[in-house]
Amino acid sequence: MTNDFDKLFERARRDLIGFDPLFSLLLDDKRYKTVGVDGYPPYNIEKLDDEHWLITVALAGFTSNDIDITVEDRKLTLTSKQQTEAEATRNYLHKGIAKRSFERRFILADDVEVKRACLQDGLLSIELERIIPESKKPRKIEIAS
Prior knowledge:
Layout lengths: L3 H12 L4 H9 L14 E7 L2 E7 L8 E6 L2 E6 L4 H4 L14 E5 L4 E9 L2 E8 L15
Antiparallel strand pairs: 1-2, 2-7, 3-4, 4-5, 6-7
């Protein structure tokens, strides 16, 4: 199934040379698609400035031991662990707080790093920062006379 965005990127792919990895990420590569189609857990991505972002994930009822955060090949992956035996043996009359397994992936740009993660009041906050290596920073070239 294609939409207008897919058509736009497909057209741009034909006209722009050297951007193939970017277009592969956006259109083709299933490894980079967001997992968690049902929208669970809900999250926000906030741009703090040009070099900093904050991902906030709603995880009511979870503890830091229930969540794994990994970064591999520019993929930030959040996963929950299976329910504990104590959770499975509880006798709920109504269970409205979802505490289920999930996996959520985010793609990070080359120079973006995870600086910190904190779980407080049911919200997981992940701070991201762009770290530009010295080799990529602009430098002034002196002109010899």
